[in-house]
Amino acid sequence: MSEEKLSLCLIQNQKIIGLRYYQLPNIEKPGGYQAWQACLQNDNWFTLDFKNKRLFLDTKKYTLVPEALFDAQYAESYLKLLHDNLSDNKVFYSKLHQFQATLVFAISAVWNKLIDQFFNPLEIKHQNETLLGVGYRFTNKKNQLVVNVNHKEVTILYLYEGAIKFLNTFDAEFDTDLTYFILSVADLLKLPSDKFEILILGQINQTASSIGLLKKYISQVNFCNRLNSLEYPLAFREFQEQNHYLEIHTLLCE
Predict the structure, then answer these.
(1) Cα–Cα distances in Å, from 208 out to 9, 12, 78, 178?
(2) d(C-alpha 154, C-alpha 172), whole Å
(3) Residue 95 backbone dihedrals phi, psi, to 5 degrees
(4) Would you give the DSSP letter of residue 48?
(5) Where are the alpha helices (DSSP H) in the chain?
(6) What is the 3-state secondary structure (H, E, C) of 122-147?
(7) What digits encode the pLDDT tens for the residues 81-92?
(8) Would you say 151 and 4 are in contact if contact means Cβ atoms under 8 Å apart?
(9) Is it the case that residue 242 has pLDDT exceeding 80?
(10) From CA 48, how far away is CA 45, in angstroms rounded?
(11) Which residues contact 111 (CB under 8 A, 6 or more apart)?
(12) What does pTM read for this prediction?
């Protein structure tokens, strides 16, 4: 769930039995909350009772804090070092023991109001916790970046020897932005230009022009595919941009 989109996935006995996706007006803008409210009120899934409910939030208001330095009563203070306008925000945090870190994130009051109305009770996580889980499971190479491509955003992760070396989200509206930020991060981390590789996941098609441009500069471009241990509906073959969808990998947390 982000400010403009919502993906819903139902899973039972390692089988995906339903997937819905909504593109909606920005919940932070005038009329946005009302549009979201009307949409969710008409979705019959919200009238059903589920054994487990997990909500993964995609918000750029986040930061990582070393586990040894984290104190829950100062959670908002860590965010204020990097983000402004947190006065009406609700702050959450998730402890990532395998990385000896805590992921702290925040959402606005209007966003939190919608969650309280339609999603409670449930477990709330940040989407980057899922990205870290995918990276931890699928890659731990010295010169490999994990790249999650989202709607007008790209998140880049460098994970090596069980430690988070880099994690940041950038605005990426143009095809050239994806290549620019990946090469910039690789240069910052001093990865060898002719040897480093990337693992891409997210809402993207392998034939997209941005991927074609990326392959001109990076020789090893790989894609993270759906989990073979899960059973998918045949209709999923039609959704090429969801072959590498991060939301599908939230099932790692099932």
Answers:
(1) 25, 33, 37, 12
(2) 6
(3) -85, 125
(4) S
(5) 32-41, 75-80, 109-118, 127-138, 175-188, 209-217
(6) CEEEEHHHHHHHHHHHHCCCCCEEEE
(7) 988 878 889 999
(8) yes
(9) no
(10) 5
(11) 3, 27, 28
(12) 0.85
Cα–Cα distance for residue pair 163/2, rounded to 1 Å: 27
State how beta strands 5-12 and 15-23 pair.
antiparallel
- Among the listed residues 62, 58, 4, 61, the one whose alpha carbon sits nearest the alpha carbon of residue 28: 4
For residue 25, whether the previous peptide bond is cis, meaning omega lies within 30 degrees of 0, is no
CA distances from 1 to 20, 24, 142, 165 (A): 12, 11, 31, 26
Q: Rounded to an integer, what distance in angstroms lies between the CA atom of residue 121 and that of residue 55?
A: 10
pLDDT tens-digit profile of 147-188? 988 878 899 999 988 889 999 999 988 889 999 999 999 999
- Token pair in block for residue 211: 């991927």
β-pair partners for 159: 164
Beta bridge partners of 101: 66, 96
Residue 160: strand pairing partners = 163
70: tokens are 């984290």
DSSP state of 97: G
Number of other CB atoms surrounding residue 136 within 10 Å: 18
End-to-end distance of the chain based on CA atoms, in angstroms? 17
Give me the domains of the chain, ranges plus CATH numbers: 5-253 (3.30.420.250)
For the stretch 45-58, what's the b/e string if a residue is b when 16 or more beta carbons lie within 10 angstroms of its beta carbon? eeeeeeeeebbbbb
